[in-house]
Specification:
This protein has 218 residues and is of the alpha/beta class. The chain contains 6 helices and 12 strands. The strands form 3 sheets. It has a 5-stranded parallel sheet, with helices on both faces.
């Protein structure tokens, strides 16, 4: 359902919390630095969970700020016996008191995501910090509105809806432009290049070129 990035300075996550995440139908990745989210090939992160039992509050404050800059929902996991000392000024999107049930954890993850991205559903496609509103034809990257042409929008939706699948230039040409289009496959390359210039930067690469074949969404 959702993929969490759990940040702890212990290099591991409490077994009980890991079991709860698994029973809730979610997956997780554990890290000791927030920058590990950007590792190539890693599953896009839906929300960040900070393990307060192993992190200093000063570090947590900085991490919450960094998550908000990235437009990432951030939750804080607080041990039940330490909840009375929790500092609400840390300003996380949600607080999880551990141990927690899978139903409550799932709900709090959804609430945190809602606070950052609004309602998600079949009309909203989200991949990392890229969101595509299929109803309003709007695209946002890390909270920044991106203006695309209709063909660029169609290309992005097709690729992002099928991450990892390689599309040949011929397949993209026929699906987006139609079999009767008189232009050549260079049209695809031109539109992909324009699309990349609008949604990608040095820190975000969404569309990968498969040389001599075509393209795929990472």
């Amino acid at each position: 359902m959702y993929h969490l990035f759990i940040l702890t300075n212990q290099g591991g996550v409490p077994i009980g919390l890991a079991d709860t995440i698994d029973r809730a139908g979610m997956s997780c990745r554990i890290g000791v630095e927030l920058e590990q989210i950007d590792d190539n090939g890693s599953t896009p992160t839906d929300a960040v969970l900070l393990d307060l039992s192993s992190l200093e509050q000063l570090d947590v404050r900085h991490l919450v700020e960094e998550c908000h800059k990235r437009k990432l929902p951030v939750l804080v996991s607080v041990p039940r016996d330490a909840f009375g000392d929790y500092d609400v000024s840390l300003n996380s999107d949600e607080v999880v008191i551990s141990p927690v049930s899978e139903a409550e954890l799932t709900t709090r993850v959804k609430l945190a995501m809602y606070r950052i991205s609004g309602p998600a559903g079949p009309k909203l496609l989200r991949v990392g910090d890229l969101s595509i509103d299929l109803e309003r034809y709007e695209v946002n990257v890390a909270g920044r509105r991106v203006a695309l042409t209709y063909k660029e929008f169609q290309l992005l939706v097709l690729l992002a809806s099928n991450p990892g699948r390689v599309y040949t230039r011929e397949a993209l040409l026929s699906q987006i432009w139609g079999y009767d289009y008189l232009g050549g496959t260079r049209t695809v390359d031109v539109h992909i290049r324009r699309l990349r210039s609008k949604v990608e930067d040095t820190d975000r690469v969404f569309v990968e070129t498969i040389w001599n074949v075509g393209y795929r969404f990472k």
